[in-house]
Amino acid sequence: MHAVLLYHGIDDGTPSGRHMDAVDREYVLDRKLFEAHIEYLAAKPSGAVSAIISFDDGDLSGHTIAAPILEHHGLRGVFFVVTRWIGQPGFMTADHLRDLVRRGHAVHSHSRSHPRLSSLTTPQIDDELHGSKTDLEAILGAAVTQFSIPGGAYDPRVIEAAQRTGYEAVFNSVEGYNGEPAPFVRRRFTPRAYSGISMLREICEHPVRTKARIALKRTVLGTARGVMGQRYDRLRSHVVSAFRRTS
What we know:
Layout: E1 2-7, E2 9-11, H1 22-26, E3 28-30, H2 31-43, E4 50-57, H3 61-72, E5 78-81, H4 94-102, E6 106-109, H5 122-140, E7 146-148, H6 156-165, E8 169-171, E9 185-186, H7 197-205, H8 207-228, H9 230-246
Helix pairs in contact: 2-3, 5-6
């Protein structure tokens, strides 16, 4: 059994050219907090659940901040990039991606344009998955074998398209562990701007307790969404915005 952690961006106070709303900012960690996360992961107790460190979107901080911190602790990351965002303000360039691979990190696909895949036609899904794989392989000169689902939204057509395209693994954003051998569709834990070391400690050192918490959370959130409908999403966005203003 292993865990996969999903990060997005790291903030060291340097202005970013990337536009972010309140929900986007929820997934951006302060540099000091991210460093504390990696320090824990590099020195966690023997016998703890192993953890893969992944990053979605291709944010520039992956190259300028995250990768050097990982390397300092002898770790490497898996970077899932949106190919049409490569070279855009606030995102990594093709040279950055090649440099990450040269330094021992992995670079894989996060689609061409980051759409909600389940809302597309089957040909459009194929284009997003196959096109991004082809785009990245041309940039890297290496096989791209893993795919991260944009926004975590998918249906059976997305999985079928990933299999047709030749991906060996698909990553979603559903909380949970992955067994051995790992399944084709793999779960991830997502640290947020307010996630301390205690979150990682629970995931890596207390998997039984973590599984129970996840089961309870799914029950509670499922009930809340069923009762509130769209009001749930509006309330969540308001709470996230308030938290960012006070943090």
